[in-house]
Amino acid sequence: MNKSLSALRMTAYASVVAAVGQTAFAGEINVIMEEVPDYDIVAKLTEEFTAANPDITVNFDAMPFDAMRDKILTSSLAPSASYDVIIIDNPWTEEFANAGYLEPLDDYIAATEGYDYEDFVPSLAAISSVGGSIYGVPYYNYALGLIVRQDIFDEKGLEIPTTIQDYMSTVASLTTDDFYGAAMQPQKGYKVMEEWKNWLYANGGELFDENGNVIINNPAAVTALEQYIETFNAAAPPNSANWGFDEALRAVSSGKAATMLSYNWMLPALNAEGGMAGDLAGNFTLHEVPGGKAVLGLWSWGITANSENKDDAWKFVSWISSPEVAKRRVSMGGAPVRTSVLNDPEVWEQGFGEAYYKALAGILEDAAPLSTGGNAEELIEIVGTELSAAVNGQKGVQEALDDAARGVERANR
Amino acid sequence: MQLKYKFILPLALLLSAVMLYPLAFSGWLAFHEYRLTRLDDVHFVGFENFVLIATDPSFLNAMGNTLIFVLGAVSLELVIGLSLALLLQKLNILRNFSRSILLAPMFVTPIAVGLMFRFLLNAELGVIPHYLSKIGITVDWFGPDLALFSLILIDVWQWTPFMLLMFLAGLEALPKTPYEAARVDGAGPWLTFSRITLPMLRSVIVVALIIRALDAFKVFEYVFAITRGGPGNSTETIMYYIYQTGFRFFRMGEAAAAAIMLITVILVLVVLLVKFSQAEEARK
Amino acid sequence: MFSFRNPISRAFATLALLLAVFAVLFPFVWVFMESIKPASLGGRPDLWVFSPTWENWNEVTLNSDVPFNILNSFAIALVTVLISLLCGAPAAYAFSRFRGFESARYSILAAEMMPPAILILPFFLVLYHLKLIDSQIGVIAAHLTFVLPVVTWFLIGFFDEVPRDLENQAMIDGYTRFQAFYKVILPAVRPGLGAAGVFGFVLSWNDLFYALLLTGNESRTLPVAIAGYWTFRGVELGKMAVAILIAVIPVLALSHSIQKHLIRGIGGGAVKY
Known about the structure:
Chain A has about 425 residues and is an alpha/beta fold.
């Protein structure tokens, strides 16, 4: 990465004489975070870390999601990092690792006593492994599950659907003039891709075959999209073809819809006393997505390759993700990533109850990330745009998927 | 140094300080293959980025959407802003009160406006469709047919106040004599408006149009907050396209080329508008 | 000037005006209602039926950074505008008075056209090396790229309106050209300075794009804070509503108190081009 990077550096340096001594002070680490409830928990726990390690100062820079990617990038392009520790969304992993932004953690992990790396749920740990090296350790998961209004299912004597066909007929049967079987999220880009991919998995489809060829327009994908649109037309609220997460969640929490495919940790939020669902709290349950194989999301901790304080950075990362602290983090409401934590009765009791963690363990057993490869972010947008066009009837199913395949090939050229 | 240059020196220095390097860098980018995540492979590609962009259906689509957006939003704002200014000038009841209210939307940050309307217009949860459905109207505001129009309406809500402000000022400054003459001649209200008010407001209108249009070309927040360019790509605007290409896909070379093409389009339009209004001026 | 003498057309005109006032007010009313709705009812279409709570207001005003963000936004917008006026006024005066600047008038607007998406990366890199990421100074520099041209352009029109005799007389009285500008002309365009300043202030105050990428904990502006209520886990509508309202109220008060000057100011000349 030398020629142009040094050109960049030179231009930047030329304009600035004072670009010296910008190293973080020894013992100071800067951590970029997303402003979500999990961050609040981490920040609270970290007080203990700094109390136990008075020579290390941890500075958090918490921000909205949309600012993160650029901040991480520019920090990584600079001669020395402004962030020593970053959190990595799973579509970014390979891209950042290939670009050389991330420090391989294998040696650090091997040298840390009692860290028990094998304890991380395998489907999660696999995401951070690129080309045989480990570039991150799991922070929290956002695997998709099926959230249902159990009271309605009980009242009508309905079974929880386990195949996509069951799901389609169940939600269609629940739909009336002012109540809907499924609150769906066909918003262009990330949302529709994330939801549709569960249909794709259920039909045995994938984005690429073993040889890396694009197969997003093969018969399995076509069936998946046809079924997705059929479900949308039969069971989703009218005029909801541009809904994202927020609208779907509000439809479910306000009692207008019976099911949604969403992040597993929405369950506790929906069931919270005095929370968003009001009187409906306590009526929601979590299950594996129909078809069995779920779309998996993960945030992981990484250390930047240009950090000048990697040892302290690892000290912090290994502490916050250690079995003991991970357990307390989850007990305080964080999303679990370690098998031992998922199966710990103390966690069940202090957290959100046995049923939730059991269901989550089932989901994580068979789950795969939304998109992989060095261009994952772009790929999601391209496919998600075509899917949205098909859902809205602007393109035929086959046409949309052919265009998606061409777009993916163009992006990966 | 001549005196007149001393006057513009601070401006020139400051503008070059904040803009020269970024501009030069962008110009350089447009002619290079430059992916932020593949900086080991940056090389000169001539006009390849421009060719790539110009043949990308998404770019052309985004350009088309943006032109429709700018044209629709700015002309609606012009008509509504001018009507309201005339009404406010004529009706002295509630003048101060309604003027303050009517100017308010431009002080709300656009991202908040976008998120507000996302909920207000939401088919199932929104207040507006809720009350509309009580009188038997159902409208899919963010469906494929109306989404771009809805974004235009949101822009109209937020930025008509700017036009209103400009026109109130323009009307305030008009001389009274021509109107007295018109009254003596017995000219009706419409004739007075089209023969006296409108021509005298011409320069205000051109200024307001240019400023507003330049700003509308940069529309980003509403798309970002509400549709993300969807359904399909029916609301993808050029700024959103550049943001995606450059900052989500990290293809900075192509993003810079797209930006330069955008600037070219805007420049041509501005020059045409100025030339047109100067020709009008000369005709009189 | 003609007026609505006919009572019917007067009634229609009043109705149209009230309709516009309603269209503007309604979203604000809705935002206020959302701000006092309990969390369990957030975002439901019923506007009136609930028991109000001040929880969101307490949370945002006492327990969040929003007041601090407002301060940041205010400071950034104010300094941006002051610098713009300081550098823009003499230049605008020169553009208005001296020969040879005819095309410069328009090219000043060319700067305003640059899409922020393309300026931001080089900006970020330079600011990083100056150690000005997460500082108000970086955002001010970025905002100058669009506030300065607009303010200058506005001011040109104001100076055009001031009769040349004014400074000629002053120079006969023994002022230098600069003194004439500073002591005679500038006071004459005070309303114009106010109008241009307010407009520049609004542009800076509203910006999300630059602020999102250039600020951090210490320098976060209000639009970024408001966007921050829109998270991965949904929009926190109630709190966002409070943030919007406490952001709008001071600016509204400001604009209300100066609107007459503003209108007279712009009418005094900015509308010439």
